[in-house]
Design goal:
It is built from 8 helices and 19 strands. By secondary structure, the protein is an alpha/beta fold. It has 2 domains: 179 residues, 4-Layer Sandwich (Metallo-beta-lactamase, Chain A), CATH 3.60.15.10; 127 residues, Rossmann fold, CATH 3.40.50. It has a 7-stranded mixed β-sheet, with helices on one face. A 6-stranded mixed β-sheet has the order 1-2-3-4-5-6. Strands 14-13-15-12-16-17 form a 6-stranded parallel β-sheet, with helices on one face. Strand 9 and strand 10 form a beta hairpin. GO terms for molecular function: RNA endonuclease activity. This is Putative mRNA 3-end processing factor. It comes from Sphingobium subterraneum.
């Protein structure tokens, strides 16, 4: 790929998102715009009010569930190149949640990959991350510190099932983000042999139904509200993290409070949420996966956002890679 004098001069990072000038569109803007390309359905990337949206079918369906009907929508199938203004655009899997994508931009011989949020671990609910060599790689850094090395997913799920077996008169209440994390936890439990009904807080139902529509076999799911308290003993229940310690949870049969999140690596975070069973399970890349990905796509320059930029900037400097931090607003950790 050619060595351009000013790499990426045609893409403009602003606090409210990335503007692609020769295509006249924004990527993951935090405020309504005329044309938005959206990497995935989490609320810090997918907002309502855009006049036109291009995204994968999964992301568009998630946005419809969350925000209702949008303006003009255009489906971006994985791997299919489309022309937007003077820019060639294609979406490739990011491995984050259902429909999540990296957006590959090509203009005047230069390739930029805006990765959105991504992970490298296998996930039965979404297509795996696809590395794309590029001139500029825009990467998140949610867990961009060497302390964050996520354990094996199978081992974390085994901890939940062992706790359930050891406490037959209690329930295991797992706090999990309603989009992506909850469905992944369910699928991992099923893969580990847990075929019993899994009970859901009402806030989980719509997105679980959507995942079923996209082919995810979540098994027997039942609403908590329809059950007698005694029926929930020895059961696994999923709820949003915000519901872990509220009045709703106190009505359950002596719950073992768990939370599925990469932040459970930090003991203080678990204590703050009164989490008895931390499950270190993230939908973001850990430190080793971030650095592995940069090596793999081998960009001429790395742009870093969404998290702990300083350590990754330092790593890039030590490995003779040009890098800069972007100051994008509204990027949240999503209890991940």
């Amino acid at each position: 790929m050619p060595n351009m004098v000013t790499p990426g001069s045609w893409i403009k990072p602003f606090p409210q998102g990335i503007y692609v000038e020769p295509g006249d569109f924004w990527i993951d803007p935090s405020a309504p715009v005329d044309r938005a390309l959206v990497t995935h359905g989490h609320a810090d990337h997918a907002r309502s009010g855009h006049k036109a949206v291009m995204a994968t079918s999964g992301t568009l369906a998630i946005m419809a569930v969350r925000y209702g009907e949008a303006g003009v929508t255009q489906v971006a199938d994985y791997g299919t190149q489309q022309r937007v203004g003077d820019v060639d655009v294609r979406f490739v899997p990011a491995g984050h949640v259902l429909g999540s994508a990296q957006i590959v931009l090509e203009h005047q011989g230069e390739r930029v990959v805006v990765s959105g949020d991504y992970k490298r671990r296998p996930d039965p609910t979404c297509a795996p991350f696809e590395p794309v060599p590029c001139d500029i790689f825009v990467t998140e850094a949610t867990f961009g510190l060497p302390v964050f090395r996520h354990p094996d997913t199978v081992d974390e799920i085994a901890k939940a099932l062992a706790t359930l077996a050891d406490n037959p008169d209690r329930c295991v209440l797992i706090g999990a983000y309603a989009l992506g994390k909850a469905q992944r936890v369910i699928m991992e439990l099923r893969a580990a042999g847990h075929d019993a009904p899994i009970y859901l807080h009402g806030a989980m139902q719509k997105l679980c139904d959507l995942y079923r529509e996209f082919g995810c076999d979540l098994g027997d799911l039942r609403p908590v509200t329809a059950q007698n308290k005694a029926d929930l003993r020895g059961a696994i229940i999923l709820c949003p993290p915000s519901a872990l310690n509220d009045r709703w949870a106190r009505a359950l049969p002596d719950p073992v409070t768990a939370m599925a999140s990469g932040w459970m690596r930090i003991r203080q975070r678990a204590r703050q949420r009164n989490v008895e069973l931390p499950l270190i399970l993230s939908d973001h890349a850990d430190w080793d996966e971030l650095t592995q990905t940069i090596r793999q796509v081998d960009p001429g320059e790395v742009w870093i956002t969404h998290g702990r930029e300083d350590a990754l900037l330092r790593w890039c400097a030590l490995h003779q890679r040009r890098a800069r931090a972007l100051d994008l607003v509204g990027r949240e950790d999503e209890d991940d």
